[in-house]
Fold each of these.
Amino acid sequence: MKLLTSILLTAYLGYVVGVYTNFPWWFFVFSSAVIALTIRQSAFTTFFAGFTGMFLLWFILALIKDTSNQHLLSQRVAPMFGLGNSSLLLIVVTGVVGGLVSGMGALTGYHLRRIFRAIISINLE
Amino acid sequence: MRFVYFFLSLSITVALVWALNRQWPLGSIKSPRIGYFLSPQQGFWQNAESASPSFDLAVKSPELKGKVDVYIDQKLVPHVYADNDFDAYFAQGFIHARFRLWQMEFQTHAAAGRLSEILGKEMLNTDRFFRRIGMVYGAEQAMAESDKDSTSKMAIDAYAAGVNAYISSLRPEDIPFEYKLLDYEPEKWTSLKTYLFMMFMAFDLSGRDVTTDLQMTNAKNYFGWDNFRQLYPLVQDSLDPIIPRGTPFIKPVKRPIAPSDVAVRYLSSSDSSIAYSTPESKFTPRQPDADNGSNNWAVSGSKTKSKAPILCNDPHLGLNLPSLWFEMQLSTPTYNTYGASFPGAPAIVIGFNDSIAWGVTNAGRDVMDLYTVRFKDELKKEYLMNGNWIMSDQRQEMILVKDGANVSELIPITKFGSVLYDKDFNVPDSRGLTVTVKWTATAGNQGIKAFLLLNRAKNFNDYSAAISQWTCPGQNFVFASKAGDIAIKQQGKFIAKWKHQGDFVMPGTDSFYQWQGYIPMQENPFMINPVRGFVSSANQKPVDSTYPYYLGSAGHFPLYRGIIINRKLNEMNGITPEDMMKMQTSNYNVFAEMARPALMKYLDKNALTPNEKKLIGEMENWNLRNDPKERGATIFHCVWDSLESAVWGDEIAASKFSLPWPDSYSLLERMLKGKGDFMADDIRTKGKTETIQDAVMIAVRKAVKHIETLEGAGKVNWSVFKDTYINHLLKLPSFSRLHLGIGGGENIINATKSNHGPGWRMVVHLTAETEAYCVYAGGQSGNPGSVYYDTFVNNWVEGTYNKALFLKREAAASSDQMKWRMSFSN
C-alpha cells in the first residue's frame, strides 16, 4: 500500500511541478525527494517507487502525445537517437530518463531522512 | 556513514541532472539537453501536434485598430480579412510566426551573420562572410531609406508587432521544435529582420560573383584572351531573348566609357592588378546555386479558350523544409490579394488580386563587382585612389559565439565597396590580395514596397508604378490583367557598364573603373501586348545585341528553358489552365534535342562494343523527356557530362586556381558550327592530338562504364539517378523528404534538380471570377510534428495543383471549406 501510494504520489507531484514550465524540467527531483522523506520504506523500495512513479508519468504523457500525433514526430526523432523508427523505444527511453532522475532524487531523500532520524534520536536521548 | 551515503546519492543525482541538462558535443554539432528535450511537459513531445489539430484562436492586442477575421481552409491556408492595412499586416506577421517562427528567425540569423550565436564557432567564417559582403549594412541602409516612406514603414512595423504578439503569447513549452533541439529561445522580432531577409534573397539571386568574378579572372589569365573568349562566349547563337530579336531600343543619352588602359591593365592575361602570391586557403565562400532562376509567362485572351489571359510563374530555388513559401490571402476593404508570401516579410510576393496577376523571375544581371584595393597599412584606414590616400569608413561588427569568445569584425568601407577578402579572411582564389565587393543590394533599396503596391494594383499603370520601386535583385515582372493586358519588364537598378566591366576583378585604385552610373529605368527591357499574344522569361538574356548597354558575361543567363517556353507558347492556341499546368510540369529536354544529333554526328558507331551499342541505341530512341522512368535521359546526361570533362576537364584540372566550369552551350554551339575540335585534345596524352570524334568516343566509353555500375545498383531510371530531395534547413535526414520520384532537371521547364527546383508553381486564369491553381514543395506548417509539415510534397512530385480558395469576406465566413477561425481584436 505504501509502495503504491508513493509511486502515485511521485507521479502526481511530478506532474504538478511539471505544469510550471518556467521551472527547469528536473524540478521533480525535489518532489520525489520530499515523498521519500515522508514515506518510510527501504532504500531499494524508495528508489523503485521514485523511478516507477516518474517512469510511468513520462511514459504515459509521451504515449498520449504520440498516439494523438499518430507517431509523426517520434518517427522523425527516434532515428536521431539511433532508435530506428521505433516510437515505442523512444517513449521507453523518455520514461527511463525521468525515472532515473526521480529515483536518484528519492534515494537522496531516503538518506536525508536517515540523517534526520539519527539527529532526532540523538536529541531524544 | 549516513552522511557518506547521503552525499554519495546526492552527488550522483546532481551529476545525473547535470549530464542530462547539458549539450554534449557530437563531432561538429551538439546534442540537445537530453532531459529537457525528452521531458513530455517541456521538450519535443509538446510539439507532437494532434493529428486532427485545432487552429482556432482569439487574439487580443491593444495595438490593433479594428477587427480581423482569419478563416483557415483545409490546406491550412489562412484567409485574412482585416478592417485596415495595419491590422492586415499585424495578422500576417502573427500567422507567419504561428506556423513558421523558427525558420523566420533562423533565415534572418543566417543573413545577419549570427549563426555562431546559436550553432557555435563552426559557423564563424560563414558569419564573417555575410557581414563582409554587407548584409547587415545593406539591411540598415534599406531600412533607413524605406522608413522615409510611410506605407512601407507602417507595413513592416505592423508585421513586426504581429510577430512579437505571437512570440510573447508563447509559454516555454510552446516554442518550435528546432529551438529545443538546438537549445535556444526565440528573441524579439524587429523591422530590421524583414530587411535582413530581403538581403538574403538579394544574395541568393545576385550574389554569385563573390566567387565567379575571381574564377573568371583566373580563367582569363590562365587561358589567354582568345581561348578564354571561345570557352566562355558572350554570344549565344540559339538565344531567344525575353524581348524578341529586332525590337528597337531607345538611344541612350549617355553611354559608359571604358578606361583608356583597359586592354593592358584589365583584359590582358598578364593582369597587372593581380599580383600572384601563395594563397593561404581558409574558407570557401557560400555561393548561391547557378540555377537560382524561374519561369514566368502570360498569354493574352487571343490565345486562350476563355478569351481571358492566363499568367504562370514557377520560381526555382533551393528545396527546403520548411519551404521558403507560405500560401495565404490578405484582404482589406480596399484590396484583396492571394498567393505566395515570404515568412519574414509582409505582403504577397507572387500572386494575384481581384484585377491583376503578377509573377517574377530572376534577371541575372551583374550587379556585384569585385575590386583589388590598396590600403596604406594593416589598419586599413586609408586607401589609394588616383594617387591620393582616401579615408575609409571603419565599420565594426560584433559576432557573438555560443560557448566561445565574441569576435569583433572590422569591415572597412571604400568607394569600391566593403573589404571582403584580405589577409585575415582569405579564399584560395583571392591570392592574399585585399578584395572589396561593390553591390547594388547595399545601396539603400525600397525592398518590399513594390509588392505592397502590386498587391493593390488594379491595372497596367498601377503595375508599372509598383515595380518602378524595385531595385535589387533585378527581376522580370510578368503581368496580366482582367482588362486584357499582358506585359513583362526587366526591372531593377542596373549599372550602365562598358563592355566586360565587372566580368573580372577590377583595379580598385583608379576612379575610371568605378561604376559610372545606372541605366535609366525607362530604358529597362519591356514589352506590352505583343502581337504574338504572349510574354515570357526564363532567366535568359533579356535582349539581343542591339540593346545599347552591356549585360554582363553570358554565364549569368541560362539559355534553353527560354527556347522551349517560347516555342511551346508560339504553337499553342485555345489554351486552358490545364494546358498551362501540363506545360509547367513538362519534362521535355530541348538541350538534348539539340545536343543528341551533334553527339551522334561525331560518334563512330562501328567502333562500339555490343553493350555500348545497346545503351547508345537506347539513348537514340529516347523520347527526349526527362520523365521519372526514362533510362535514355540518364544515358544522355552521363554521355554529355563525360564529353564536357573530356574536352575541357583536363585543362581545368591543370590550373593552380579554381576556374568556372564553362556552360554546356559553349561546347554544343561550337560542335554545331563544326568547331568542336577546340580544346578537344587531352593535354595529358603526349604525342597525340585528340579531335572531337576522339572526345565523343572517350565520353561514350566512360559513360557506358558508369551506366553499367548504375545498372547493378538499379539506378538508371532518371528520377532514381537524379534523386531529388527536400532538405530540412538543418539538413536532418529524418526531417527531410528524400528520394522523390520526380522528373525534370536542368534546361527543362520542370527545372527540378536534386535539391533545387520550382518550389512554387502557380497558374492564374483571369476570368471574371479569378481561377487560380497553386502548389509548392512543402506544407503550411513549419512544425515537423504537424500533419501539415509536408502536405503538398506528394502533389508537387506528381505535378498536380490545388485550386485556390479566393473568396470575399462574407462568402468566406459561410464557406464549408474553411476549417478553423482566428479572430484578432483590441
Amino acid sequence: MLCQECLKRNATVLINTNINGNQKTIHLCNQCAAKLGLSPFGGMGNMLSAFLNNNDVLQTRKSLVCPECGYQLEQMNQAGFLGCDKCYESFAEQLLPVIKRIQGSVTHKPEISPQEAQPDRIEQLKKELKEAIDQEEYERAAQLRDSIKEIEKGEKA
Amino acid sequence: MSNIVLSSRVRLARNIAGKPFPFYAPPNLQKEMARKISEAFKGKKDYSYLELESLPEVDKHLLVERHLISPEFAASSNHGGVWLTKDEHISVMVNEEDHVRLQALQEGFALEETLAQANATDELIKAVVPYAYSEKLGYLTCCPTNLGTGMRASVMLHLPALTRIGQITPLIESITKLGLTARGIYGEGSQVQGDMYQVSNRITLGVTQNDIITNVGNVCQDIIKKEEKARAYLQEKGPMQLADVVYRAYGTLANAKLMPIAEFMQLISDVRMGAGMGYFNLKQPDVIDKLILAAQPAAIIKRSGQDLSEPARDQARAAMINKEITKNVKINEG
C-alpha cells in the first residue's frame, strides 16, 4: 500500500485515530509520518497531544501546575507525558475525558484473587458435573466430584 | 502452527510512588531510583545488569535486535539500564519511559507462561519499592496509554501468505476494531520487515491481565488459521509458482555475494514460509529464527569485531548466510 500523504513510498506506519468517536486509519511512510509529527520514535506521546488539542476542557490548562512535582499541564500537551503519579490527581478534571477517549474506560478492573474466583469455579464444576452425568460420562463425573470436594475442603480449612 | 508464531511477550509498566517519572526526574534522582530498584535483584544470580551509559552503541543495538530493550531506550540519555536473565527470557528496563518496564519473552505461542513469568518478576520489584497505584486508575504510568494494568501482551506472527494475497491491510483494520494493534518487529512505530507483525492489545485500562491475554490469544489463533488457509490457497492455486518463490529465495541466500538487510528479510521470509510448508528440512526447528537474529546489522558488526560500513556488512552478511543456510536448511527432495 502506498503512503496516503506522498503517494510515492510504501506505507509502513499505520495510524489509528478516534477523535470524538470518528475512527480513522491512515497509512503513511516513515518520512511523512515524521513530517506530520507522528514519527515512529515520537510514539503515542504525539497521539496524546492530538487528543488534548481536541479537548475544549483544556482551555484553562495554562495556569495548572501539579503541586507535587511542579509539572504544568501545558507541558503534557507537548510531550504527551505526565510529570509524576500525583499529576493524575492534580489534573484529574482535565485528564479523565482524555483517558476515556484513549482507553474507552476510566475505571481500573482489579485482578480477581483466587479466593474470589473460587465460588464461581465451584458453580462451574457443578454445572460440568451435571452435564457429565446427563451424558453418562461417569469417569469424568467422578473426577469433577473429587475436584469440587477438594475446593470445598480447602475453603473450610 | 508453531512456524507462524515466532514469540510471545508480556510487558508491564510500573513506577515508584511519589517520584517524578524518569524524563522529568533530575539525573541524581534517576540514579537513586535505579539503585533502589537494583535491590530487587540482590543475590539473584541469574540476573545481570547492563548500565546504559557504559554500553557501547553496537551493544545497545544488539539488545534492540534481540528484543531486550526498546529502540527508544537505546537512544535515551537517561541514567538507567537493563536487568537480564541469562536465558534472555526476562528483561527489566530501568528508567525508560517508566521507572520499570519489565518483559517476559518466550519462543512460540506462550502468553500464559510469559504472563506468569512477568508477574513473578513484578513481585520481586514490588517487594523493594512502593508502586504508584490508585484504586480507580490502577498502575499510574508516565503516559496515560498504559494506565490500569500497565500491560502489553504481544505475539510475533509471520504472515507471508496473507501478505502475498493482499489480505494484510484489511486484517489489520479488523483487529484494530477489536482493540488490538499490529506493529513492526521492534514495537511501536517500527517498520514491518520480513512479513513479521507484532499483534498486541491497545487498551490497558478497564480490563484484567487475563482479559488481555485471552483477547490477544483468541485473535492470534484466528489470524494463524487465516495464514494457514492463505498458504493452502497459494499452494493449490499455483504450486509451481510457490515452489519457484521459495527455491529462488533459497538460491539467492545460498549464493549471493552482497546481501542488504531489507532484501535478506524478504528472502528469509519466503524460505521460512517454505520450511513451514515442507519444502525444506531443517537441522533444528529454530535455525531460521536464529539466522534472522544473526543477520541483523549490530549482530554482524559484533561478530566481525570491526565497525563495518554498510557495504562491508552486506558482504559479511552474504558470506555468513551462504554458509549457514546450506549447512542447516536442505531442500526436501521427497
